[in-house]
User: Fold this.
Amino acid sequence: MWALAVFLLLALSSGQAATLEKPTLSLHPPWTTIFKGERVTLRCDGYHPLVLELRPISTLWYLGHLLLPSHGKSIEVQTPGVYRCQTRGAPVSDPVHLSVSNDWLILQVPYAAVFEGEPLVLRCRGWYDKVVYKLHYYRDSQAVRYFHSSANYTVPQARASDSGRYQCSGTMRIPVESAPMFSAKVAVTVQELFPAPVLKVAGRAEAGGVVVRCETNLHPRKRAVPLQFAFYKYSRSVRRFDWGAEYRVPESEVDELESHWCEAATPSRSVRKRSAWLQLPGRGSPPDSSTSIPGPQAAPLAPGNKLLSFQKPLMSTSVPSVTPVPNTTSARLRIPPGRAPSAASAACAPPTPLGQSAGALKPDVDLLLREMRLLKGLLHQVVLEMKDSQAFPERDGATLETSTAHGAEPQGTPETSTVGG
Assistant:
């Protein structure tokens, strides 16, 4: 009976341990750098098996890859290095880096990660707590704070921009005031509590409209931190901060879904981040096709998968039909020397109709140029004819005299006829 109880206790403990998260390792006092000869306490918090188990060892301690002989929930250490702990059935804890210094001045920073919105406290400490005067704190070699004597540098609500390499400097009276001394640089990183949220379409609402959701993810170590959400349309708040991550857009505003955005924040508003504008899939409608939000249509494709151009052409691509008009003036024109009559007649011929011969077709530009050359030739012939008429005026006079001589003799007047009779 006793063996059965022990077996059940072991099974229950194994089942609980299988679902456990890794233990938490803490440091007291909470500084990662100490002076040589000082001691600090490490504590491992997590699941610890009952004493009734056959293997009473509940906690394992590691310095680097070396297994330490202690098995209690806490140990005191003074050796520099990387410490970890592990409880029965759980993963190994996150590491704690302990540094030991022999300098006159050290900068002490928190051992645990600092998240956005949490206070960041730095401590510049003199050898065995001697007072530090003319104290300066630096971030990335730039002075950020000055104190007359020993004081902590505190950022009430840390931001990612507070990350960097910190250092401090000051003087001490040993026994007279010393020259300025500098501590070693220490890297400080402010962890992101949660990324900027993203506003997405969740679907249609039963009461009409569209449901949108403000989505973000807390850091794994801060899953217990509650978040609140607010929703906006352009710059107007449509729902103030509340615990719900979803908001129903009324049917009358569905056409303006892309004008909405949201905010996520902690209850104290120490961390507050906004999303970008709502992006619809393909700039189209929400997943439900009944939402009528027009999206851009794809451009049609021409043969060969080339995009068609919707630009209006500069000139028509069709060949205009030409109707020959009799020109009496051209019959009297003389062809200049050196030009064969066949060439002139070919130039005056109408263009080949569309569809007769694919090889005889020419672009409109060639056709216009040919017509311009023809018009230029005609104008040239008219000018030559006018010059000829001015050079030989007797031709017109002779023509006039000839027509008068061969004309009918004029009849007499009524008086002449009467006298002759």
